[in-house]
Automatic annotation (TrEMBL), chains A, B:
Cofactor (UniProt): Zn(2+)
Record bears the keyword ATP-binding: no
Any matching Pfam family: Pro_CA
PANTHER family associated with the record: CARBON DISULFIDE HYDROLASE (PTHR43175:SF3), CARBONIC ANHYDRASE (PTHR43175)
Protein name: Carbonic anhydrase
Documented EC number(s): 4.2.1.1
One Gene Ontology term of the molecular function aspect: zinc ion binding
Cofactor note: Binds 1 zinc ion per subunit.
Reactions mediated catalytically: hydrogencarbonate + H(+) = CO2 + H2O
Principal EC category: lyase
Keyword Ribonucleoprotein: no
Record key words, sorted: Lyase, Metal-binding, Zinc
SUPFAM superfamilies, A to Z: beta-carbonic anhydrase, cab
Length: 183, 183
């Protein structure tokens, strides 16, 4: 860790473990000759959920694919990144994977608006809206299979993907570690 | 793979490898008893880059942390997810990690606007804008260390994080596999 930024005294445990774990990882790192564009020309969009270790869980290897992750694995939230992935880095397929027991099933957009305004104030809510689309992309009123299909439909009909892009939708079962295809 | 969705004949190689790799992974999956809220109460924000295998590279274990990934590891793009992570799933620390040789250094926002309009039309550009903030968060005019510090400053001054949130900024060197702290 760069000693000029923080002394160990005000470094958190998480930061220390990142530095220690990464130091070990770097000794056998194999990515040094990989290009910026993904070798297998696809991108994965999935949730930020802590139970999803994307590379082994989805049969991927270093350099294969872009990995876009956000709360709920929202395709709309991911659209900017997908377009950059396709137009600047030549990917041609999108794999969208939501999962069971997702936090985004626990609330709706109006509830999240009210929650944030109450806890952090009107200005915080406005800042989040301006930083994104103004939507939380919660699916408290939907089942995850349905939310996945809707996101796949959104991408296919968006007009933003390159012609012939393959888009498929999957659900990862956090109790079994298994994916099933739903779209 | 659910046989009712697609016959093997029109399944892509990427989809087949996902299914095969995941089937093997599921046999030794250890996440079945983990809760939705991350055990170590932090979230990582990083780039979608294919050379970043987050769990081993950043010393993480299944269930530890949320992982938010987008083109460039943009904090603004990640803000919706960070707020959900904190307010609904109790995380209290943000680790922001950009990386060297990032695709987002290759262009600027006006260049991306012009590129998409030319290739996919005005409506596609409008759809991407509406799905997000209207920004590409490219840093073609900035060095990655500087872009990382700016994003950390944005988060700290956003007013959107819970009080006392620890935010640090790091850069992953894709040629060495090593992180260094820059903020």
């Amino acid at each position: 860790m760069s000693k000029d930024i923080k002394s160990p005294a005000n470094t958190t445990e998480v930061q220390q473990d990142l530095d220690i774990g990464n130091n070990i990882y770097a000794k056998s790192y194999k990515g040094q000759h990989l290009p910026t564009a993904p070798g297998r020309h696809y991108c994965v969009v999935t949730c930020m959920d802590s139970r999803i270790d994307v590379f082994p869980a989805f049969g991927m290897h270093l350099g294969d694919a872009h990995v876009i992750r956000n709360a709920g694995g929202s395709a709309r939230d991911a659209l900017r990144s997908i377009v950059i992935s396709q137009q600047y880095l030549n990917t041609k397929e999108v794999i969208l994977i939501k999962h069971t027991r997702c936090g985004l099933e626990m609330f709706t957009d109006p509830e999240a608006d009210a929650m944030l305004e109450e806890r952090r104030g009107k200005q915080a809510l406005e800042t989040v809206r301006q930083a994104g689309s103004g939507h939380w992309h919660a699916f408290g009123n939907q089942k995850v299979d349905e939310a996945t299909r809707e996101d796949v439909d959104f991408l296919k009909s968006s007009g933003c993907l390159v012609d012939g892009t393959e888009v498929s939708g999957w659900v990862f079962d956090v109790e079994k570690g298994r994916v099933k295809r739903v779209a």
